[in-house]
Design a protein that fits this description.
This protein is mainly alpha-helical and 253 residues long. It has helices at 16-39, 45-50, 53-85, 94-106, 109-120, 124-148, 152-160, 165-195, 208-216, 220-248, and strands at 3-4, 9-10, 14-15. Strands 1-2-3 form a 3-stranded antiparallel β-sheet. The longest helix has 33 residues, at 53-85. The relative contact order is 0.14.
Amino acid sequence: MTVDARKGTLLGGVPRWTGYLIRPVLLGAVCLALYLWVNSLQLDSIEQRVLTQGYIVQRLIEHVWYAFATTAIVVVLAVSAGVLLTRPFARRIVPAVVNAGNIGFAVPSIGVLVLLAIFFGLGFYPALAAFVVYAFLPVLRNTMVGLQQVDDSVIEAGRGMGMSKSAVLFRIELPLAVPITLAGIRTALVLAVGTASLATFIDGGALGDLIDTGIRQSRDSILITGSVLTAVLALFIDWLASIAEDVLRPKGL
């Protein structure tokens, strides 16, 4: 979906706000269909205990909290690291750091989760730490690429106008790197939503509890509810991130 920023329309003449509304309407229809389907079933005692508004909302809140807490921590750490690694004094260690990040990203997220649980115990914080490790690389890599693609002549022009190195960084380099950095943050946010389901394996809660219960108890209604809500949440947060990309993108880029 491509946006014409000058006219506020999607290419093809469709108003931008109309394009923004399509996905939430479709996701709302999916949630409504899921609700009607579950209520049409004859639920047994296990399903009645799990498929309640209170239980589902609590798991959903935990899932959202994982996603946004992971992304907030990753943004602070990865953007800062990306800035440092693009400075001249740190360029020698860039390959080692990127290779280490690639190794961490290649390791299955469940493996990172279990390792941290072994050393630090069960619950929210070990799960959050595992998700931060897994989502770190996309933001780091995009931040570095965004800063490295800034034209040297633009930087030299800023220095020629009397700007300090920090002024060039905050007023020229980072604003020009925003589109690519935001794409990495969007990727990390969606990764965090997807992997947050694994928190259930170390007693971390979230919507993975429904999926795990549905599998262990052979209850398709619980399994499908947890799976559909996880997918809907991921698509909805990706939709919010796409709007943020358009809003935060510097004008003219």
